[in-house]
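Teaching note: in complex prediction, the entire set of molecules is handled at once rather than each chain in isolation. The prompt given to students was simply: 'Predict the structure of this complex.' The entities are:
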Amino acid sequence: QSALTQPRSVSGSPGQSVTISCTGTSSDVGAYNYVSWYQQHPGKAPKLMIYDVSKRPSGVPDRFSGSKSGNTASLTISGLQAEDEADYYCCSYAGSYTVFGGGTKLTVL
Amino acid sequence: EVQLVQSGAEVKKPGESLKISCKGSGYSFTGYWIGWVRQMPGKGLEWMGIIHPADSDTRYSPSFQGQVTISVDKSISTAFLQWSSLKASDTAMYYCARVRSGWFVDYWGQGTLVTVSS
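The expected output is the structure of the full assembly:
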């Protein structure tokens, strides 16, 4: 199976918004509303930020939002803060298994 | 409090076998799938497979089918990941994770670093 496609890096200044895309196929992202997003700081375990395309777990700021159109899912972070600097991974169900994206490094300038 | 506690770091030689563990607590262990995720040094996350502790139903990602074995002992609320013959390319951090319906992870273990070197 192929990993979902994410940009290697994105950046933004504090207070700005950034969007990270996650492109799959009609067999994974396009087929199911089971896209999730994870934040990972260096040396730490990943943390769930978004599940079921657009749902936010309790405790995750509403600055984080998710959406999907066709075979592409997106994570938008508004009002960027220094602590948002991390790696972000999308993940999609693909029918009997799940697949991650390659990861995107977010730099807060 | 939900916790997944993994076994400690391992240093092994190529060709050796290894079994690492993940003990769940603070929830009904047999009520949720447990998954394993690999992260090679400086690289991204990769799903390896999942297992349901209630009936040991196991599903492997195609890339890992036949390369590892995932098992569980529900009597001690522990899932396992094992290799019969390690390779240098198995050097990585391995995370266990609680998988919810919708195939997302809400809780992660702290990770087990496996180093394979001659």
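Point out the following to students. The two ends of chain B are 40 Å apart (CA to CA). Residues 48 and 64 of chain B are 6 Å apart (CA to CA).
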